[in-house]
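ok new one. same drill as before - structure tokens go in, u give me an amino acid for every spot. 349 of them this time. try not to just spam alanines like last time pls lmao
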């Protein structure tokens, strides 16, 4: 068998219709060659079996791909406030961006600012992660002006065919409901915060669904869906005083802490008399001994960046909603039901 012909710089140059000098500069990592052409020359040299010189560092022959530039946009609320989870996702996303060869630029803006148009600097980006709820009109305006992949993080809009990565507030409520039932509780009632906040509404629906599932598991009647406006702290206190409640599932940790304070003022002990759970938007939790669900920030950030990488690189994949399971923090606000307590499932008043 005849020995394989050694590939020379001229062979690579002829194959790509460029000069030998250009090939030499590209393989040596010298300036004067665009990143696109350099990558093409390196790939062609490898495919042809070119033997890179051992006298030079191999890293110089195969330059690292220039990172894609993308934006990570934190959307502030109406009071120009940023939520702790947004900054936590941003921090993790910037780390993940390095692994995906994406240079993420952290940006802060408000809905009011975006009403005046998309900042000029956005035009430099190959993609964008929007962290924080945006009205459909503003989201459409960003997509129309930039024409780049957009990943939405922390919210969902059914009118847009985009990727939405968010905390699975509906199904996460099973975590606290299962915990309370394992602790022996059956008189479990809901305490609902403001349902004007979409996330809290999801928590309420998830908790109500879990209650219905447990209550009708061995029954034939249709499940009862409580009215969120009736699921107040005062109503729960009334049920507790009538010994019709041993545990509360709160849709948010702020409501849970308010309930605990009210219970203690009424002479109840938490969790000896009443167990209370919450749901925190802060990934670190409320740190006040509350048993609560918190979002899995690391997973949300990793998934958002991975999807952005796929979109930037043109990978064919249908856009959709990507819910991420939360984590249960066991605090001191939930404990076993008192012996001798009645054990009936959540029901109307």
């Amino acid at each position: 068998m005849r020995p394989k012909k050694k590939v020379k710089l001229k062979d690579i140059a002829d194959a790509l219709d460029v000069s030998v000098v250009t090939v030499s500069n590209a393989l040596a990592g010298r300036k004067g060659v665009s990143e696109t052409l350099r990558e093409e020359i390196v790939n062609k040299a490898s495919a042809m079996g070119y033997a890179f010189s051992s006298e030079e560092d191999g890293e110089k022959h195969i330059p690292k791909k220039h990172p894609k530039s993308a934006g990570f946009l934190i959307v502030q609320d109406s009071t120009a406030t940023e939520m702790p989870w947004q900054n936590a996702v941003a921090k993790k996303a910037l780390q993940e961006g390095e692994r995906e060869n994406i240079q993420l630029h952290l940006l802060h803006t408000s809905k009011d600012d975006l009403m005046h148009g998309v900042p000029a600097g956005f035009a430099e980006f190959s993609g964008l992660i929007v962290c924080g709820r945006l009205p459909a009109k503003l989201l459409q305006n960003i997509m129309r002006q930039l024409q780049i992949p957009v990943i939405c993080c922390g919210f969902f809009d059914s009118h847009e065919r985009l990727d939405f990565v968010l905390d699975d507030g509906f199904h996460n409520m099973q975590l606290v409901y299962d915990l309370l039932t394992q602790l022996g509780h059956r008189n479990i009632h809901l305490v609902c915060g403001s349902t004007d906040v979409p996330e809290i509404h999801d928590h309420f629906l998830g908790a109500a669904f879990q209650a219905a599932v447990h209550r009708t598991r061995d029954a034939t009647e249709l499940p009862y869906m409580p009215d969120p406006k009736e699921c107040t702290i005062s109503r729960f206190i009334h049920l507790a005083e009538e010994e019709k409640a041993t545990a509360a599932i709160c849709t948010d940790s702020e409501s849970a802490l308010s309930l605990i304070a009210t219970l203690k003022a009424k002479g109840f002990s938490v969790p000896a008399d009443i167990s209370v759970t919450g749901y925190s938007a802060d990934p670190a939790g409320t740190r006040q001994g509350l048993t609560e669900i918190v979002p899995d920030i690391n997973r949300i950030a990793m998934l958002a960046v991975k999807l952005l990488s796929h979109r930037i690189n043109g990978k064919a994949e249908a856009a959709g909603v990507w819910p991420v399971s939360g984590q249960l923090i066991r605090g001191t606000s939930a404990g076993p039901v008192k012996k001798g307590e009645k054990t009936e499932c959540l029901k109307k008043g």
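The two ends are 90 Å apart (CA to CA). and btw Residues 68-168+296-327 form a domain with the Rossmann fold fold (CATH 3.40.50.2300).
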